[in-house]
Write a structure and sequence with these properties.
Layout lengths: L3 E2 L2 H23 L4 E7 L3 H17 L2 E7 L5 H13 L5 E4 L9 H7 L11 H8 L8 H12 L8 E5 L6 H9 L8 E5 L6 H5 L4 E4 L17 E4 L3 E3 L2 E3 L4 H5 L4 E2 L6 H20 L5
Parallel strand pairs: 1-11, 2-3, 2-4, 5-6, 5-7, 7-8, 8-11
Antiparallel strand pairs: 9-10
Helix pairs in contact: 1-10, 2-10, 6-7, 6-10
Length: 290
């Protein structure tokens, strides 16, 4: 029997409806409109699409969005000066630096410059540390979106063996840390695999849940999956003008019990969680914690 499809688009739409209601209540109560400032450096087409989608989502949720388009030649100092200005601006609650940045700019320096109170991507070491300790200010958008999909799909996470493929700062590492915490869609036993992992297929075949974020198209094949496993595909790769995930979708769907599609799986959830973090940042700015 083919796997159930975990529809991230539908789940994200529900979350965004609730979020829009919460934003409206917040504005009514405080007369403060949550405001996300996005910084787009250069002309990367994929980045431009991502930012445009985020702006549209902000508009629908009642969140103000401002886009700062910057030339690819901007100096690191110039970019840091803008971030400093946005950090000080009390009307800006969230700052999003769209990655990747041009090669002459050090990403870590730029991301560290965003004040932790406006770091809605949860990249700042202070926010990462709080998350690791189980007392997050913000949760990283993609891993949080994955957790919401596990929760709404009724996946049994507590006590399950989850295998995370990938160890990036954006997905792999925070995903593993969030799955191992106490709480909803957590309490899992977690194995992190990466490019140096020996006997990878043997490990993935033991998994009740696989989160694939390795950046290689159709990397996870059916023979790597235990029958009945739940597959969350974070990957998005362009192959012959078609978007595909890190999972070989059709064959794996014949083995798994549930699977996310690409597109329409994790992607919409990432944006929904970004909006949630922006509202949280606005709430924190006026002394509210919920």
């Amino acid at each position: 029997m083919a796997a159930a499809i975990i529809d991230g688009k539908a789940v994200a739409a529900d979350l965004r409806t609730t979020l829009a209601e919460n934003v409206s209540k917040f504005v009514e109560r405080t007369n403060v409109q949550p405001h996300l400032a996005a910084l787009l450096v250069g002309e990367d087409p994929a980045s431009a699409v991502y930012v445009r989608n985020k702006q549209r989502a902000c508009d629908k949720a009642g969140i103000r969005s401002t886009l700062h388009r910057l030339p690819a030649e901007i100096t690191e100092e110039g970019l840091l000066a803008l971030i400093k200005q946005l950090n000080k601006d009390p009307t800006v609650h969230g700052i999003l630096v769209q990655l990747p940045l041009p090669g002459h700019i050090k990403e870590q320096v730029v991301l560290d410059a965003v004040t932790p109170l406006k770091d809605v991507d949860c990249f700042h070491p202070e926010n990462v540390g709080l998350m690791v300790q189980g007392r997050p200010r913000f949760l990283p958008c993609t891993p949080h979106g994955v957790q919401q999909l596990l929760l709404t799909s009724g996946t049994q996470v507590a006590g399950a063996h989850a295998v995370v493929l990938g160890r990036s700062e954006i997905v792999g590492k925070p995903m593993a840390m969030m799955l191992v915490q106490r709480g909803e869609a957590a309490n899992a036993t977690v194995t992190v695999c990466h490019s140096r992992t020996a006997g990878l297929a043997e490990i993935t075949r033991q998994a009740d849940i696989i989160v694939a974020a390795i950046g290689k198209p159709r990397f996870v094949t059916a023979d790597m999956v235990k029958p009945g496993a739940v597959i969350i595909d974070v990957g998005i790769n362009r192959v012959d003008d078609k978007l595909v995930g890190d999972v070989d979708y059709e064959p794996v769907a014949e083995v798994a019990s549930a699977i996310t599609p690409v597109p329409g799986g994790v992607g919409p959830m990432t944006i929904a969680m970004l909006l949630q973090n922006t509202l949280t940042a606005a709430q924190l700015s006026v002394g509210m914690t919920s």
